[in-house]
Amino acid sequence: MKILKNLAIPLLGILAWEFLAIYLNNQVILPKVESVVNILLNPGVGLLGTGNLVENTIISIKRVLIGFFIAAMVAIPLGILMGYYSIVNELIDTPIELLRPIPPLAWVPLALAWFGIGESSMHFIIFIGAFFPILLNTISGVRSVPLIMIEAAKTLGGTTKHILKSVVIPASSPDILTGLRVGVGIAWMCVVAAEMLPGSDAGLGYLIMYAYLLSRMDVVVASMIVIGIIGILFDKGLRFIEKRYFSWKKMIK
């Protein structure tokens, strides 16, 4: 029964899509469901001379993972320092707040100027998208650690290194994971935009743009569906880690 409830809205959406596509009868405006499904069911078949759906998906995933991990490696240590040391926060908070509202796409010209046309520019755009949510959630997590825990560790003779390692980081890990969830979602959105940059010749973003130029909306929609599915899988994976290792957080609320 629960499965039927979960599938009711998607099925109604697909029916509405098919009826509208039949009514419009114009594949350039809205492709029929069967043409999109046919692409999804044959992911190994070449598309428009740009490789197949599987190859382009793997390329996009690699780009997201590289940009995302670089962002995590920079944002988590920096967030811990900003959350724990007020002097570090005072020094860096203003530049962070100035840069944070700038959309990742606004960095495209600078990315091309700094890194040139190619993979590095794409990784940089993905890095920018993932960096700020990871950083802010890490800062929030560190600041939410009960002061009594830190004071107790100090009373027992804990050094700053031990307090950070044994108290602050474990206690703030759920919030850091929340930041990673948000960050990977934004990174996945940014990869589509990054792959539309000059010099890109593969990936789902490139495939979408190339298919659009050829008026192949069935390829566009199929690529969009794959992006959505991969995004859900990323989120489900991190949710699983959260439930598996950080379920204790709910018990202390």
Keywords:
cell membrane, MetI-like, mainly alpha, MetI-like fold, 11 helices, membrane, 2 domains, transmembrane, 78% helix, 253 residues
In CATH terms, what is the fold-level topology of the largest domain? MetI-like fold
Mind telling me the CATH superfamily name of the largest domain?
A: MetI-like
Could you tell me the mean pLDDT?
Answer: 84
How many strands, what sense, and barrel or not for the largest sheet? Answer: none
Strand content: under 5%
Distance between the termini: 32 Å
Shape: globular
Instruction: Examine the secondary-structure arrangement and name the CATH architecture of the largest domain.
Output: Orthogonal Bundle
Rounded radius of gyration (Å): 22 Å
Assembly annotation: single chain
Describe the protein:
It is a multi-pass membrane protein. Residues 57-238 form the ABC transmembrane type-1 domain. The chain has 253 residues and is mostly helical. The chain is 78% helix and 0% strand. The chain has helices at 2-24, 33-41, 53-84, 86-99, 108-115, 119-143, 147-155, 160-194, 204-213, 217-245, 248-251. 32% of the residues are buried.
